[in-house]
What does this fold into?
Amino acid sequence: MSKRLYVSPLFLFIAGCCFWINTVSAQQLDTLVVHFEFNKYDLLPEAKQSIDSFFSQILQRGYIQNITLSGHCDSIGNNNYNDSLSLSRVNTVRAYLYAKGGTDRMLDGIIGWGKRQPAYDNNTDENRAYNRRVEIVIKSRLKPGITATPRPPRTVQIQKSITEFVKDPATKTGDQLILRNLNFIGGRHFPMQYSLPLLTELLATMKEHPQLKIEVQGHICCERNGGDGYDYDTGTRDLSVQRAKFVCDYLVKNGIDPARLSYRGFGSSRKLYVDEINEEQQTANRRVEIKIISK
It folds into this structure.
């Protein structure tokens, strides 16, 4: 017989770890990344909000089986110091989960990587800020009737050029990249003025690599539960699709064979920032990503 541990409704996501599911259902992997200030391991208020929202969304779909925590640092400082700091960051996240009712049983593993596994190069202050992080990976079992969302392949926010990314031997079919600063006007499928040079760069890359085939993936901000947004230019509720289509149309109009292009929209299901606590985060979510189909 299944057993249920009661906790307050506010923290039902912890209770999800205590269910035995008798019905066969799909599994899901989800990842949340929370960031830290330089040389700090305290959770910022916005990080706590992101964790709460993240777990709440998962528990709407199913039940948590286990959680893995991994801590990371930027490149400043020696290995011994950063190993200790990354583990402190992990322990801070673990303590936050425990304060909500979690136990060791829900944790599948914790590790502090120090500065050994940067998400981005450490050449800029912005990139170093991205590297100061804890990655929370959750394995959950979905409720019957809910389909698992495929876990995205490696996604890279690039600092080098698009051409350099395509030429990189590590870039393989299925890899995705976020075109940083290729963002869109709110409620519209037209890019911001400052984004136009990136479209030109993408076009040049497609011409330089005639075998390259890509899928353009559109995303939006400000919607909940993965839904798509209203496009004020077309009068349709498929804003993420229209943003991806705009990029493909631009490439076709400038000489790229349509057979090398495809597009799709993900609505609000793959936000970079779940809670969008400010305009900057909303803008970052209004984006397109490029998936390599073949090269």
